[in-house]
Design goal:
The complex is a heterodimer of chains A (about 725) and B (about 400). Chain A has about 725 residues and is an alpha+beta fold. Chain A folds into four domains: about 5-40; about 55-260, Penicillin-binding protein 2a (Domain 2) (Alpha-Beta Complex), CATH 3.90.1310.10; about 265-315 and about 345-355 and about 525-555 and about 570-680, DD-peptidase/beta-lactamase superfamily (Beta-lactamase); about 360-515, 3-Layer(aba) Sandwich (Beta-lactamase). Chain A is about 35% helix and about 20% strand. Chain A has 23 helices and 25 strands. In chain A, the strands form eight sheets. In chain A, strands 2, 3, 4, 5, 10, 20 and 21 form a seven-stranded mixed β-sheet that branches. A five-stranded antiparallel β-sheet of chain A has the order 14-13-25-24-23, with helices on both faces. Chain B has about 400 residues and is mainly alpha-helical. Chain B has one domain (about 30-390). Chain B has 16 helices and three strands. Chain B has a three-stranded antiparallel β-sheet with strand order 1-2-3. Classes of the chains: A alpha+beta (about 725), B mainly alpha (about 400).
């Protein structure tokens, strides 16, 4: 059939019909091309967008790993509590948005309906706390302190409580095994902030809204390992957020356990005796200030010499870390951080710094030998040393004649070190220092690791301070304005000091170097630094990074990752000098300043080495320091405003050794009673089901003190021996 | 030229009984364009499946009965088929005599929309709700414009007086179309107005009217568009739709939401789709109006490129066959009617699918044969009836 003849239509119409046909076909081809472009070429992109559209994630938090002591005793673990939660998704499906259900629930939980309603409302810029800050698809906890009866009421009448669950849930618990508290070492958890979520978003361990994050102590250092990986269930939802199906899910991976080198029993003993020593110090009269010692803070560290591992670490004042669990109350927070609190959150073993006093003297001893002095040479120990009219006294103004450096350590003679340091200062140019001054005494302090962190695996360690020339200059530059404003020539003491500082505070003066040589003045150290130094003297000279964490063991016990000891250098002394100092420190314990505290000590079996220290602090009472070591352990204790080293800290340190080695007061050893005669080597076993093989431990109870009848020699040192 | 009676195929052979006419060698059934019929039917069947998928869980629409919409859709298709049969039975020539009456009724109905009887559904004040049934008179206006203009334009040409319609006739025809278009513009049902303008273009092209008219109409369309914009005839939502079309990133939660979700739905279907009722966008009801204007997104997501392409292909076949009918009929009247229907179907399908694909601005237009909606369904099947009638009533070549 042809187009034209019998239709009688003109070619114009025919042409236009063809045009229409072409137009139609091209429109359809356009659509087809676009369809191909969207679906075939870019299809996967849109598929991804579609899944983002309709998939919502509900998170099952991973159970946080436990923190174990060296033998597997959990010092931080999880407790099952009955948590009542509400599903917003379910509540919102109800006609009254779940109000009647929540009101009924408030009745069962004995809470006010408003409190319950507030807990499930979503936070936004206009909604004040309490409100739910997490995902609206996440069950919202209403209480974690439901009683079994309340939980049963809710579960048995589940038709009355649609969208409400009452389930046992893991909550952090600091169990204080054997009465060990370990608060500052453990740290604490608190909910993750928006900022942290944003920051960690693209990292390999992103946070979930429901996460608790370690804020301090081990909880913070090992947060990543402890946290595990949360499980995620993906729900398909419709445009109104209603769940219409379940997509694939990832199961939660519980966090790993952190095995520490802490021994909960030794920890309990340390805490007890530290607190006891501070209590006793408060009963002591301080004749310098005319009132009892305040003993406002203290710390003790027990360290393994050959590894740097921490066996116990106590800080006082302390607190109950369980205060943080389930959100800290405003009252508790003020009690822990307020001005009056005396800051129990601080771990004074790593964050408390003070002048070291005489326990510092091993450093000038090494400095002197390195500067060329004979260890066994003879050095005068007069009762005082004067520089240009200024008199620097020996402790309690005693003289000891001409003695070796070892004896100077033993009797803690200050004047020996005054002279050595003063001579070196003069050699370095005195008030007009040479360009390349040796600065032996300062250099050696740095070599001992002072003035910087030891690298312990706990957060926020402080550095202490070596008041060398550079520090003096920086300090002066920072303070000169204040000094020059306050200073007055011939004014009061403080004003005169300020005036002097204003004029020449940038200079290392003779008096500075003299004060510095015996650990007084501007020098600051932390207990952990001193423990590191003394354990290094004990182990032959290796300064280990102190560690609390010993191993990371996966929840099923299959993966064990040991944290190997790491050193940050050697002490600047050769073997002979180390041996000399070692001997002198043993003498301190047997016949020197600490001897009166070690009466009856089995020195032949367990050689004891010690150094006492009493640091003077302007405007405060003296700081008590006591640094000791045996073959395996070092113990360093300090008590701020606590009195003398051996006087305040001595008995407590001995008590800790007694517990470790199983010694009684007379020095007889009973290995059965010994808590840890040798450092714990093996790691605790964790079963595939997550249970931990740990010994049971009893709460620490100190033995009743016997009346000190036959131990009269313990009542005080011989009259000619210094008691610092 | 009017037929002698409702039942006769005037002028060709003696009158026979209905049954014998149906099955005779030159019977209506044998001369029907079965390809168009089957393709259109296939589109409606696919449409049923898509409407089912889109509405089965829209409880706010269907209540507890997931089949509520699809049943109504199938009934609509059935009524549509009945209207087609009736149209064939009457024949387009018979209808030609009734055009003034039909035109009058349709204009009356669109006028009624502007009275309190009119109702606003989904932002378009284009509905009449009478005794519980909602009716969209603008759908029928599309038919009466085609028939009315064809009647005027073809009258003197088919009578052999002229080769092409003269200017006066063209003016008359345009006037005839302008009256209902102005009313629909006042609603404002912009989508329908655009379709009607395209219908006029198709009708004028096929009528052989002077090129000046064709280009004049194109120019007037452009000017009209600017005028509509400037005069503020449009509602805010319509302006927002155009803005969202120009910049899809604009306000993805607001006016851009439809197009964005529609594109996600279609794009995520990929080559073969998720399978009927398996699409997450459809199941999750992320695309609004998915059973009506956005029904193509269900096909895109759940049937994929294969299924959505099949819909395009079926529409293509229907239009291709319609073009053939337009070319092969003996009278200019039939040619014009067929061309008007082609312009209508082609533009409406292009606009509807194009907006879901993001290449056309959103306008409330159903996809012929596929979308849920009675008025539209009836109108397109009447149009198929007209095409069939034009084909059937062309003389046999013998």
């Amino acid at each position: 059939m042809t187009n034209i003849p019998e239709t009688g239509r003109t070619p114009r119409v025919q042409v236009r019909l063809v045009i229409i046909q072409i137009l139609v076909v091209s429109l359809l081809l356009t659509l087809g091309g676009r369809l191909w472009y969207l679906q075939v070429r870019n299809g996967s992109e849109y598929a991804e967008e579609a899944s983002g559209n309709h998939v919502q994630q509900v998170v099952q938090p991973a159970v946080r790993g436990s923190i174990l002591d060296a033998r597997g005793v959990p010092i931080a673990d999880n407790q099952t509590r009955l948590v009542v939660s509400a599903s917003r998704t379910d509540l919102m499906k109800m006609k009254d948005d779940g109000k009647s259900v929540l009101d009924k629930l408030a009745g069962v939980l004995a809470m006010s309906p408003k409190d319950v309603a507030d807990k499930v409302r979503l936070c936004d810029s206009k909604t004040p706390q309490p409100c739910w800050n997490g995902s609206p698809y996440q069950p919202i906890p209403i209480t974690d302190e439901a009683t079994p009866k309340q939980a049963l009421q809710i579960r048995e009448r589940s038709e009355d409580f649609p969208g409400i669950t009452a389930e046992p849930t893991a909550v952090r618990r600091y169990g204080a095994p054997g009465k060990s508290n370990t608060a500052q070492v453990l740290g604490y958890l608190s909910p993750v902030t928006d900022e942290e979520i944003n920051k960690a978003k693209d990292s390999d361990s992103p946070y979930l809204r429901s996460d608790q994050v370690g804020r301090s102590g081990l909880e913070r250092t090992y947060d990543k390992q402890l946290r595990g990986k949360a499980g995620v269930t993906r729900y398909e939802v419709d445009n109104l957020g209603r769940v219409i199906g379940k997509a694939e899910s990832d199961r939660a991976q519980p966090g790993s356990n952190v095995v520490t080198s802490i021994d909960a029993r030794v920890q309990a003993v340390s805490e007890y005796w530290l607190n006891d020593a501070m209590k006793k110090a408060r009963d002591e009269f301080d004749k310098n200030t005319g009132e009892n010692y305040k003993a406002d803070a203290g710390a003790v560290v027990v360290m393994e010499n050959k590894t740097g591992r921490i066996v116990s670490m106590a800080s006082n004042p302390t607190y109950d870390p369980n205060a943080w669990v389930g959100g800290i109350s405003g009252k508790d927070y003020a009690r822990l951080t307020g001005k009056k609190s005396n800051y129990p959150l601080l771990n004074r073993a790593i964050q408390g710094q003070a002048a070291p006093g005489s326990i510092f003297k091993v450093i000038p001893t090494a400095a002197a030998v390195n500067a060329g002095y004979e260890f066994n040479g003879r050095y005068p120990c007069p009762s005082s040393y004067s520089i240009g009219g200024q008199v620097f006294k020996n402790f309690e103004s005693q003289g000891h004649g001409s003695i070796t450096l070892g004896q100077a350590l033993e009797v803690s003679c200050d004047t020996v070190f005054y002279k050595l340091s003063h001579d070196q200062w003069a050699k370095d140019g005195g008030n007009k220092p040479k360009k390349n001054a040796h600065d032996w005494f300062y250099k050696t302090a740095h070599q001992f690791g002072l003035g910087k962190e030891t690298g312990i695996d706990l957060p926020n360690e402080v550095t202490g301070r070596v008041p060398d020339r550079k520090w003096k200059k920086d300090y002066w530059a920072a303070n000169k304005d204040a000094w020059c404003k306050q200073g007055k020539k011939g004014g009061e003491y403080a004003e005169r000091i300020a005036y002097e500082n204003c004029l020449e505070g940038m200079k290392m003066r003779a008096g500075d170097s003299v004060n510095y040589s015996i650990g007084q003045g501007d020098t600051l150290v932390t207990p952990i630094q001193m423990a590191t130094i003394y354990s290094a003297i004990a182990n032959g000279g290796t300064m280990y990074d102190p560690t609390v964490g010993k191993a990371i063991i996966s929840a099923d016990g299959k993966r064990v990752e040991e944290i190997a000891p790491k050193s940050h250098g050697k002490l600047p002394m050769d073997a002979a000098l180390r041996k000399d100092i070692d001997g002198a420190l043993a003498d301190v314990a047997t016949k020197g300043t600490a001897a009166w505290r070690f009466g009856g000590w089995p020195q032949d079996k367990i050689p004891m080495h010690a150094k006492t220290g009493t640091a003077e602090v302007y405007g405060k009472q003296t700081t008590s320091w006591f640094a000791t070591y045996t073959k395996d352990y070092s113990i360093v204790m300090t008590i701020s405003q606590g009195g003398t080293g051996s006087g305040a800290s001595g008995p407590a340190v001995r008590k800790i050794y007694d517990a470790i080695y199983g010694l009684d007061d007379s020095g007889k050893q009973d290995l059965k009673k010994a808590l840890l005669p040798e450092p714990q080597k093996s790691l605790p076993k964790i079963q595939p089901d997550g249970s931990i093989d740990a010994p049971r431990i009893k709460p620490f109870k100190p033995a009743k003190p016997k009346a000190p009848t036959e131990q009269t020699e313990l009542a005080g040192p011989p009259a000619n021996v210094r008691r610092d | 030229m009017a037929g002698t009676g409702g039942f006769s195929v005037s002028g060709y052979g003696p009158e026979r009984s209905t049954m014998s006419r149906l099955f005779a060698r030159d019977s209506i059934l044998r001369r029907l364009d079965w390809v168009i019929l089957l393709c259109a039917l296939a589109l409606s069947v696919i449409g049923s499946a898509l409407v089912y998928s889109a509405t089965r869980n829209r409880t706010e629409l269907v209540g507890d009965d997931p089949y509520a919409f699809v049943i109504k859709h199938v009934i609509n298709v059935g009524i549509g088929l009945g209207l087609m049969a009736g149209t064939i039975w009457l024949g387009h020539r018979t209808l030609r005599t009734a055009v003034p009456i039909l035109y009058g009724i349709s204009v009356f109905l669109v006028l009624l929309v502007l009275t309190p009887l009119g109702a606003t559904i989904n932002g378009a004040h284009a509905w009449l709700v009478i005794a519980g049934f909602s009716l969209q008179p603008s759908e029928f206006v599309k038919i009466t414009i085609i028939l009315g203009m064809a009647m005027l334009l073809a009258a003197r040409v088919d009578a052999g007086d002229r080769e092409h319609p003269d200017h006066r006739t063209v003016v008359q025809a345009l006037g005839l179309a302008a009256v209902p278009i102005m009313i629909v513009l006042l609603m404002p049902d912009l989508g329908s107005v655009m379709v009607m303008v395209m219908i006029i273009l198709g009708v004028l092209l096929a009528s052989g009217a002077s090129n000046r008219w064709v280009f004049g109409l194109l120019g007037a369309g452009a000017l009209g568009g600017v005028a509509i914009w400037q005069l503020g005839v449009l509602d805010d939502y319509q302006i927002a739709r155009f803005a969202a079309f120009a910049n899809p990133a604009l306000d993805p939660a607001g006016v851009g939401y439809n197009t964005n979700q529609a594109r996600i739905a279609i794009g995520s279907g990929g080559l073969t789709g998720t399978g009927l009722t398996k699409g997450s966008q459809t199941t999750g009801q992320f695309v609004p109006e998915q059973q009506t204007d956005f029904v193509f997104t269900v096909a895109g997501e759940e049937l994929g490129f294969v299924g959505a392409g099949a819909i395009l292909l079926l529409l293509g076949v229907v239009l291709w066959r319609a073009c053939r009918i337009a070319r092969e009929t003996t009278e200019l009247y039939g040619t014009i009617v067929a061309a008007g229907i082609i312009a209508w179907f082609a533009f409406q399908a292009f606009e509807n699918i194009g907006m879901t694909l993001g290449i056309m601005p959103v306008a409330g237009l159903p996809l012929p044969f596929v979308s849920y909606g009675g008025s539209s369904m009836f109108a397109v099947w009447v149009a198929v009836g007209l095409l069939q009638s034009i084909k059937v009533e062309r003389p046999l070549s013998a």
